[in-house]
Amino acid sequence: KAGVTQTPRYLIKTRGQQVTLSCSPISGHRSVSWYQQTPGQGLQFLFEYFSETQRNKGNFPGRFSGRQFSNSRSEMNVSTLELGDSALYLCASSFSGGPFYEQYFGPGTRLTVT
Amino acid sequence: AQSVTQLDSQVPVFEEAPVELRCNYSSSVSVYLFWYVQYPNQGLQLLLKYLSGSTLVESINGFEAEFNKSQTSFHLRKPSVHISDTAEYFCAVSDSGGSNYKLTFGKGTLLTVNP
User: What ranges make up the beta strands (E) of chain A?
Assistant: First the structure.
């Protein structure tokens, strides 16, 4: 079974630009969560999508948004990039969300904002 | 709000030595607890989890963790580590199994196993 894939793996953007990251979950999984990982703040929850609906959201500004398509693939978008947005962005998929179904993480997209 | 504290940011040990990675959490309600491992340039992998029942949980590669409600701790232990255990380990907590489910992670502990 193919794992969670994230594209692109590496990205360099300039402050003020916007960026879109993509996540393809494991086949059959309907829940996709996004996390931001930085050395200073660690892993922080961004949002979770289930069946094309945002079900839960972390404490990030509105510049961070996402969506999920009918095939469960998900994208997250960051507008007006700031230097502090440089991070590893991880997505995780699970069959249905919640603690009883394991979350499988992708390798991440490394975003560098200059 | 829930939070997780991993007391050691780095733990160096020699191969075949025992190791304990410490994790404390705060939450006002019942919790679910997890340990994840992250190898270099990879995503996180679930190592073990506590949902209910026996307070001692084990992984397939020799790690174990014990849920201690009175101490609000979920320390990870292994009696004899291998070079291949070198990785970053994250403790995580969730206090809901409903639609507001999300994981709150600690800052991580880098375990380095030296020959």
Answer: 5-7, 10-13, 19-24, 31-38, 42-50, 53-57, 64-68, 74-78, 87-94, 104-105, 109-113
